[in-house]
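ok so I'm stuck.
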Amino acid sequence: MSECMAIIPARSGSKGVIDKNIRPMDGKPMMAYSISHALASSSIDRVLVTTDSSEYAEIAREYGAEVPFLRPAEISGDHSTDLEAFRHALLWLREHEGDVPETVVHLRPTHPVRDVSDIDQMVEILKTHPELDSVRSVSPVAFTPFKMWFRSEKGVLSQVVDCDLPEPYNQPRQMLPQVYQQNAAIDVVRSTVILEQNSMTGKAIHGYRMHHDFDIDSEEEFLRAEQYLKWQRKSLEGESLRFVVDIDGVIASIVPVSDYSKAGPLTENIRLVNQLYEQGHEIILFTARGYVTGMDWRHVTEQQLQEWAVKYHELHFGKPNADFYIDDKLISLTAIGNFLHLTPPTKEMV
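replied:
not stuck anymore, here's the structure
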């Protein structure tokens, strides 16, 4: 019997993105990415997909996973839980094969972007720390819950969460504890926790920090992940990419009353842009400077870019002012940097 098995739950009938588990994403069914991550892991010795669909099962087998059974319809609905699917899979294995794996790696097909080394490190954490029930991947959240409220029917506010600081909702954000959310990328759990504690995590949960989150539940999230994967593929193939980067708020600090001469450099972002340039990618800078003021900011802008040592190929002016911009690429510079390994990834071991 497998010591460490990946189980990928892939039911049919999703509503937010229709048939998202098998929807083509940069040329492959989305589910195939999770299968390939599991197969590439040095810690996983068996890959199983649990699904209620014979079509999904055929696709899973095509990409290298085992599908020894179809999941019953009664635990494959909109309100069915992961626990039901995983208990069914493990009990099936016990009944038909006589044993269950010691460790289960939960890879959701809705998270097609992963670093395989994260899987191996998380498995190692659980393996070397018997006091833990599970290891769960988490990402930092942008909005602190210490400034969030419940509101009663009479309009009275009460805190969602509390901490040791007095009146945390009145404290500067920098003074508040960092908070993380589970990002649905990877969970590693002992089989005994699922079968005996009737839980997907147990009580002793280690949080493995990541700085990205690609769980897909909408069309926008699907397009964002697909663009990421296209960049990965092209980068691995040695193809140069074309990056169009806004200056203000990305290269330069935002300034009041559009006095761009007072803008300062955002040095970390400039470093990332320069690394992209040095890797052979095309850097196009654009700015709306001058649209509101009617002034010509080209000389100031070019001088700033030179002083800040920004490397680029073209500079464009004229993007109109607006309250909202719709960006069809849906990717931030920080995300690009993390993905193309421009900055060392942050890892954590106990």
